[in-house]
Design a protein that fits this description.
- The structure holds two protein chains of two kinds.
- Chain A contains 18 helices and eleven strands.
- Chain A is an alpha/beta fold.
- Chain A has two domains: 258 residues, Aspartate Aminotransferase, domain 2 (3-Layer(aba) Sandwich), CATH 3.40.640; 142 residues, Aspartate Aminotransferase, domain 1 (Alpha-Beta Complex).
- In chain A, the strands form two sheets. In chain A, strands 1-6-5-4-3-2 form a six-stranded mixed beta sheet, sandwiched between helices. Chain A has a five-stranded mixed beta sheet with strand order 7-8-11-10-9, covered by helices on one side.
- Chain A is globular and about 80 Å long.
- Chain A starts with 8 loop residues before the first helix and ends with a helix.
- The model of chain A has no long low-confidence stretch (mean pLDDT 92).
- By secondary structure, chain B is of the alpha/beta class.
- Chain B has one domain: Rossmann fold, CATH 3.40.50.
- In chain B, helix 9 links the parallel strand 7 and strand 8.
- The chains are: A alpha/beta, B alpha/beta.
- At the A-B interface, helix 1, helix 3, strand 1 and helix 11 of A face helix 1, helix 5, helix 6 and helix 11 of B.
Chain lengths: 413, 268
């Protein structure tokens, strides 16, 4: 087993959290489709409930298959542990309800490429959390994690980061100063477009006691026999509470079957994350040079406001800045529609991070509730198209795009 | 709770129950760059089953004030001073790694005050390589990684201190970083390792211990392998050896087995 050096990413992606099943010898992770788990005795039951022993009781709170996913996500992110959730959205919700208290305030931004000092200016006495995403959607603005983490820590609050678009393979926010990380595992972690799920990882680095802003974690908790989470877990105060409160009380537990499917995607994660990088570069270059394309919003291009930051923070630099990006065609809304309707290989749907290539028109779908002004602030125009590049041969993808661009051009004639 | 020892506040986790000197007491002593939280499951259990628990942060570590002990002997005197300050006449001492040497030395110095001795992940001599001693000062982050890799035996630990989904590689590393940072004045990584390395009194101390001794060893421990405890066990009057399926971080890698062994031994 482990030797003299930390186990590498590719090894952890396959092995972290999973051992051959002691009951059957099964080498692959079994799917434990059981709501509950028997106690050895009445004493054992009481001890599990009183947190004197660790183990599984009820699958809303923990499950052995989910625990493999949780350990694996924590291992890949460099965290101390994780909690799997029923969807990607349930992960930040769990963090927020754990940390906010009544009247708590969050600082987040829709323009992450802006001046980091904007974050500082927005912090109030009741601010409990800074919240950002590694790459903005769909503009791919890169969050300056070291700068924003410093601002958060100066104010005594943690930084929570949505790392869905980058995956731990391309960027590990905890190593850059973030305190908590979450993923919509629906996307790249599962990678197959077959499952809804999320995971919240605690980096174990934030000192809740020193901050003084989180009595939920540092004073006796009535909901659990007066337990003081920061005493029970010097580095694990945060991780202890959501499983005992948010997950238990709000119930956004992940199905073990979904956990297993996400694990199938994480195992070979390095492979698809390398291939789209190579594919992506060819697709981005094709679009950038096409006369009917007005703008391509990928940090690979020096024109992108986050180009330099992407080079600094991401594995493979700007080439690693995600396989989801947007571009604008030179044409009307109707021409945009013609473009999408002509595509054959790209699937028109509301998701990203599938092994299949995907396309969507944000202004009429994912972002349709925003007016033009808000859309513009988020870097989205009426003709903006968002792509998610999958694992197909890039020549075929480019041919598909070429045909659709031609059709869009003709539709305007 | 905090107890004033030698004029400095010493922190002790009491297992989620108020301190009660009338009950039999067990003191938990952690190793280098650890704190009370490595014993959470075991200490919490005993506190809820008839024991008075003091799981300390060593002086100058974590929440405790005072100077970090420069030697095993000095640390042992500190533990005995804690018992006096807390009004505890007699206690079981449980120590891990560096803490096992402290427990051993304390039991030898005050045999009448120690009811049971438990040495978890122990070795004598507890030599630390010159390279690691040096790295603990010149490259502590690298040394933390090295010690962390040596201290764990598995990539798939069972549900542990923070419940299911705990990733022990990460939580142990985070704890070492936190404890190192907790004392900006003194490098407790180095003082701890140096105290282990220099401790020469193990065999004499073992011979002076009057109470029963449990050796709790990890079968896959690369820091203090099971064979490294044999010299001490040979000098013990009443030694019991229990081997569990774990590495050096056995309280978190095999929390249930460690608890069972502790409970059986303390009940006997």
């Amino acid at each position: 087993m482990p030797g003299y050096a930390d186990p590498g990413f590719d090894t952890l992606a396959i092995h972290a959290g999973a051992r051959p099943d002691p009951a059957t010898g099964a080498r692959a992770v079994p799917i434990h489709l059981s709501t509950s788990f028997v106690f050895d005795s009445s004493d054992h039951a009481a001890q599990l409930f009183n947190m004197e022993r660790a183990g599984h009781v009820y699958s809303r709170i923990s499950n052995p298959t989910n625990a493999v996913l949780e350990q694996r996500a924590a291992a890949l992110e460099g965290g101390i542990g994780a909690i799997a959730t029923a969807s990607g959205q349930a992960a930040p919700h769990l963090a927020i309800v754990t940390l906010m208290g009544a009247g708590g305030h969050i600082v987040a931004t829709s323009a992450p490429h802006g001046d980091p000092d904007g974050w500082r200016a927005a912090i109030r006495p009741n601010t409990r959390l800074l919240l950002g995403e590694t790459l903005g959607n769909p503009g791919l603005e890169v969050l300056d994690i070291p700068a924003v983490a410093q601002i958060a820590h100066d104010a005594g609050v943690p930084l929570l980061v949505d790392s869905t678009f980058t995956t731990p393979y391309l960027l590990r926010p905890l190593a850059h100063g973030a305190d908590l990380v979450y993923h919509s595992a629906t996307k790249f972690l599962s990678g197959h477009g077959t499952v809804i799920g999320g995971v919240l990882v605690d980096g174990g680095s934030f000192d809740w006691e020193r901050s003084g802003r989180f009595p939920e974690l540092t004073t006796p908790y009535d909901g659990f026999h007066g337990m003081v989470f920061s005493e029970e877990g010097t580095v694990g105060a945060f991780l202890l509470r959501p499983r005992r409160e948010g997950l238990r009380g709000f119930g956004a537990a992940l199905s073990p079957h979904s956990a297993w499917r996400i694990l199938q995607g994480i195992g070979p994660l390095p492979l698809p994350r390398e291939r789209p990088n190579a594919h992506l570069e060819r697709v981005v270059c094709f679009l950038a040079e096409h006369p009917f394309v007005a703008r391509v919003g990928h940090p690979l291009l020096e024109s992108h406001p986050s180009h330099a930051l992407a080079q600094r923070l991401l594995k493979h630099g700007a080439r690693g800045a995600g396989s989801v990006f947007s571009f604008d065609i030179k044409g009307s809304r109707a021409q945009g529609k013609a473009f999408i309707d002509t595509l054959k290989l790209f699937s028109h749907l509301a998701n990203v991070g599938d092994c299949r290539s995907l396309v969507i028109h944000p202004a009429s779908t994912t972002h349709f509730r925003m007016n033009d002004e808000a859309l513009a602030a988020a870097g989205i125009g009426p003709g903006t198209i968002r792509l998610s590049i999958g694992l197909e041969d890039p020549r075929d993808l480019i041919d598909d795009l070429k045909r659709a661009l031609k059709a869009a051009e003709k539709a305007g004639a | 709770m905090f107890i004033d020892v030698h004029g400095a506040p010493l922190y002790a986790y009491t297992g989620g129950r108020p301190f009660d000197a009338a009950r039999p007491t067990v003191v938990f002593i952690h190793g280098v760059l650890n704190d009370h939280s490595v014993w959470i499951l075991q200490s919490r259990h005993l506190a809820h089953h008839g024991w008075n628990v003091l799981a300390i942060d060593l002086p100058g570590h974590g929440r405790s004030g005072g100077q970090p002990p420069a030697s095993v002997e000095q640390a042992a005197d500190g533990v005995l001073a804690l018992l006096r300050a807390a009004g505890v006449a007699r206690a079981a001492l449980v120590g891990h790694s560096f803490g096992s040497l402290i427990a051993l030395e304390a039991a030898a110095r005050a045999p009448a005050q120690v009811s049971h001795l438990v040495l978890v992940g122990t070795a004598f001599p507890m030599k630390v390589s010159p390279a690691l001693l040096e790295a603990s000062v010149s490259a502590p982050e690298q040394a933390i990684h090295m010690v962390n890799v040596f201290s764990h035996s598995t990539l798939c630990p069972p549900p542990s201190a923070l419940g299911p989904g705990t990733w022990l590689y990460g939580s142990s590393r985070a704890l070492m970083r936190r404890v190192l940072a907790s004392n900006p004045a003194v490098n407790v990584f180095h003082t701890g390792f140096q105290a282990c390395d220099r401790y020469a009194g193990g065999e004499q101390a073992m011979a002076a211990v009057q109470c029963p001794t449990l050796f709790l060893v990890g079968r896959h421990d690369q820091m203090t392998p099971p064979r490294a405890a044999r010299a001490l066990a040979a000098h013990a009057r009443q030694a019991k050896v229990v081997e569990v399926e774990a590495g050096h971080a056995l309280m978190t890698e095999a929390p249930g087995e460690v608890l069972d062994a502790l409970r059986d031994f303390l009940a006997a």
